[in-house]
Amino acid sequence: MPVKPQMVLNALIELVEEKRQAIVCLDDDGRPRAAFTVLDAIRFISQRAKDMDGLIALQDHTVADLIAATNLTGRWVQMDEASPIALAVKELQKPRIQILVGIEGASGKATGAILRAHRRY
Fold first, then answer.
1. How do the pLDDT tens digits run along the chain, 121 residues long?
2. Phi, psi for 65 (deg, rounded to 5)
3. CB within 8 Å of 69: residues ≥ 6 apart
4. The model's pTM
């Protein structure tokens, strides 16, 4: 699901669906800036709530806050959408990679995402 850095977390939570577990943050041109999972969002919210004695106002926190507080380095990768699926699977088999974001070669815009599924590749 595509989001922008300035999106507040209550809006993000409303977008979450069971079938969409990957969240891709896009820049203003539609290119991937970061990718994370719903579990990453839950962990961020949980930590913030713990820091604030159990209370958190989701409208006071943004996707940019989540990205800044979460170490996403090496947890996602982008690849041209025309690449063979075998290469995508190889990327997802790498340690720490959780999400592969497909991009359009010429523009670099995100076209989709594949989430690692319990390391069964």
1. 888 999 988 888 888 776 778 899 999 999 999 999 999 999 999 999 998 888 888 899 999 999 999 999 999 999 999 999 999 999 999 989 999 999 999 999 999 999 987 555 4
2. -60, -45
3. 44, 47
4. 0.84
